[in-house]
User: What shape does this take?
Amino acid sequence: MTDIAFQPDYAALAATYGTPLYVYRADALTQAFNTYRSAFGEAALFCYAVKANGNLSILRHFARLGSGFDIVSGGELARVLAAGGAADKTIFSGVGKSEAEIEYALAAGILCFNVESLPELDRINQVAARLGKTASVSLRINPDVDAQTHPYISTGLKDNKFGIAYADALGAYRHAAALPHLRVCGIDCHIGSQLINLAPMVEALERLLLLVDTLADEGIVLEHIDIGGGIGIPYREDEAAPDIRAYAQAVAARMAGRSQRLILEPGRSLVGAAGVLLTRVEFVKHGESKDFIVVDGAMNDLMRPSLYDAYHRIEAVVAKDIAPVTADVVGPICESGDFLGRDRTLAVEAGDLLLIHEAGAYAASMASNYNTRPRAAEVLLDETGQARLIRPRETVAELFAAEARCLD
Ligand code: LLP
Assistant: This one.
């Protein structure tokens, strides 16, 4: 985050809303969106990937900035619509769309389906026929380039479940073009997430463009090229930020002279750095071979460290003049994998507040109720620093209310 206009009063936020607490900044959301807009230009459509953070107020913030949305479920479409997002700027990605989801999206009038297989083309065609509609489709092509990221979040290689194999692409387009209730409008790809080196993304685009030209020769003329999301953010102190501007220039050079509209699906890079997870130290525990800083946030609030061994910067809200301890920062969940950071050196004691940085993306959206932990509250700080609760903390009663109704 640059251009910091105010310093949030985390102690006051913790006192008002409790901890653990997700704290997001509207100015950082706007700034990230504007970075894209100024790099890629007004003509491009930015479809924010809802999975990164689907809070309605976050979606509304992006909708007001003119953003479109990339969804992967009927549930995410319902969120976009509830937040006031435009259906005709919404694209539907994902490898396993159900008939009910396709029906819902067609009725809502989304911009297009990003289709990942022949059976999915057939299913969308059938549902559209039943509704007397024509569905706009883009084919997600797997360019088979190595995104050089964590294997769990790499999606563009041959052996991933995603996309249509490059070698099968022409056949798939011919199949789609022959289906009466489909309108073939685009091509898309997404090779992975948290990419710091953007060269593989440019390579992927080059491979897509070869196909676009071959398709045009066959009379299949596309209206848009969707280059996916995936741009990473720095999580470590010494990590460089990807150069979005240079990437945009590389893309523009390859798109020059083409009529297709450019679409992007950024998630993490729009919200990741705009959020922190605020958590309070319960105890500092001295173990036999290791020390632990036990906090009230846990893997259910931020599962990235446990799931991907991901690194998040952790910082004390108040720099104290006490002896620092080198310890694992862990939550109260009964799993050894419940850690937020390992071997961190922090000068903290019980009661202190910690910031887990870069928790705007894939934190709240991946949160669970494991160990019957209510999900944390979320607040959004407006441009002046004023806090607004955008999701109240869950109560324990809410967590099992439906089960209680099922008791015999
Ligand atoms: N488009 C598609 C088709 C995607 O699958 C994804 C993310 C995106 C766009 C947005 O990608 P982004 O710009 O956020 O990298 N939970 C993982 C990340 C999973 C990403 C899945 N797909 C994590 O916490 O790192």
